[in-house]
């Protein structure tokens, strides 16, 4: 019995040393894979940077030392520093390899930086000698090793359950078609960047495949880092309700999305809560269905309308009590001037004051791209490229405009006398901002033009007591009826939603619709820029039934007032 007990004690002590050595080696392998994966962004030199990150950074870690190996190779756990590649482009590093997919056992090695999605870090065997086990005739040593695989994944946070078709996919389809936000928009003489371009998407009516120019639902596998859990949201009704609700900035989705067939013909009822338009009165006091603080929507209500007694629906065919398009509406680019010039051409009637009260234009949303209007509705002298309705939804499925819009009419209507420059020029150039009513100057992007998104952010700037730049009658009146914005409530209402994405922005996955199968299918977003941010410029259905008009905004960073609202995040994961 004493011999058996001694043997068991010897085995426990020696195996304990081996297990501890293996743990130390595994820590080093994990650290190498994780720090290396941070460099796998697909750009040139990514694999070399990954090797350098591993060999340089892991050596600095305190727990990178091993204490149990008896092979005389030193306390540090080291990795091969070789940064060369063979004739096929494969890594010649002994310890660090790169792969294109999972699982590693069946994946080809990456031969280019652009296809290196995963890194494998290997710590080769370190020997630990056994003292007691050898005495009782058991094994005299062990040689544990360690291995780790990590990957760089892109996550999309605050992303509603919605997708758009890749406008760059060819008509015959291509599952590998890319959509680079900065290179793949049509060049109408102003460059290929998509920033500031108008976009139109029709809601998919269900049945058949989603076509370019349409948008559809996604059944997203939503990851919540706070609880480290995933939840699959499916079903058209559930997805529309989720789309209507304010989403906190802690909910993210991975790079794979699942298309969800469903009828979107009633989507406008859910999208338009962002414009302070409510189909059900019970929703008007729901903090998860709050609107944007600026909701100028180009709609009017009948005389005597009371938000506490009447409805807040938008349905042009309805009777008294609903919001409707004005009889005297915006005609088209270049058709309105600040001074009277005949029928159909007036902006104001020459009265003093704001002018908007007596304007032939009763209410005006942000104009669409000029090329979406009929040629007859665009003034012949208006500086646009195209001036034809064929700019959107061409035979090739193009759904993006030129980015030229009638900002001057909007400014003359709601901000008369403030802006003298053309909308094609900076809103605030040298000496042109002296007559602004406050110091909240508008942001102008590097393109030197005023976009609708930039104008909206100027109008919604808050100076601590009010929104001094807000367009006339552009604050919510339906949400929390009987209460006034910033006097009785603020937006967002729930303090936990302070970091939520602006209610006029929707982030959409870009999917190669022509190539995907009908029905529910899991597909990757396109790369390298596989999401678009769409600024909603008018209520859905305002101009065309079941169609959402907006403006494309750079999705990688929505940065105004020095507050970064980045919604595309990177996550590094240990995968094997």
SSE layout and pairing:
Blueprint: H1 2-37, H2 46-57, E1 96-99, E2 118-123, E3 128-129, H3 132-135, E4 141-142, E5 146-157, E6 162-165, E7 198-203, E8 214-219, E9 221-224, E10 229-232, H4 236-244, E11 252-253, E12 256-260, H5 267-271, H6 407-414, H7 452-459, E13 505-511, E14 522-524, E15 531-536, E16 547-553, E17 559-560, E18 563-564, E19 568-574
Parallel strand pairs: 6-13, 7-8
Antiparallel strand pairs: 1-2, 2-5, 3-4, 5-11, 5-19, 6-8, 7-16, 8-12, 9-10, 9-11, 12-14, 13-15, 15-16, 17-18
Helix pairs in contact: 1-2
Low-confidence stretches: 340-345, 348-358, 420-440, 559-566
Distance between the termini: 43 Å
Can you summarize the main beta sheet? 7 strands, antiparallel
Overall strand count = 19
Determine the number of helices (DSSP H or I, runs of at least 4 residues): 7
The oligomeric status of these chains comes to single chain
What is the share of helical residues? 10-25%
What portion of the residues fall into strands of 2 or more residues? 15-25%
Encode the helix/strand succession as letters: HHEEEHEEEEEEEHEEHHHEEEEEEE
What is the average of the pLDDT values? 74
Write down the Rg: 30 Å
